[in-house]
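Good morning C.,

I know you're traveling, so I'll keep this short. The sequence:
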Amino acid sequence: MRVAIADDEVLMREGLSRLLAEAGLEVVATAGDPKELIRRVGLTRPDVTIVDIKMPPTHTDEGLVAAQQLRELHPDLGILVLSHYLDSRYAMRLLDDLPDGAGYLLKERVSDVAVLVDALGRVHEGECVVDPTIVSRLMSRRQDTGPLAELTPREREVLALMAEGYTNQTIRERLFLSPKTVEAHVRQIFLKLDLREAPEQHHRVSAVLAFLRDAQG
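The tokens, ready to paste straight into the viewer:
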């Protein structure tokens, strides 16, 4: 898998490059700002790119803006956004803009190269990934009203794992459920959230967005 990295901190870029190279990935480009990232992605055509959410010149949301521009230019490019900030609004915005092949991880995750490589692989395959710390924090804010109020505790568990980007097979393994049981839970989630007329991948993203919005209150 070919990877591009964008971060304005030189040590972060170099550290990520070394970690990924040691894990067997090929780092084909690095950049310190969005403009350079877009240029180098065009030249090297990576499979996925890692983008810091806050970069020059204003250090606000340049990473998200660059992610959207990159997807418009390269529709098959997987995009993983990294952030120091535990803020589900950024994850919601990312999935709103990029409903497939995108992920949002906290920077503290990069020290676990297995987690990072797994997330890169999943966004490369077209899945969406939300940092489990964000999912766990939002799960603890469960509300008694809103679109998710009708879900059972088990259905909320399944939806939380969907938000982390896991497939039905992985959800089955984690919750020790049969394939048919997981499929039934997923169907019920879609029905209760009134998600009917779309491919399953779009259903999953819409369900995750509903979870993020509802848990945020």
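Safe travels,
E.
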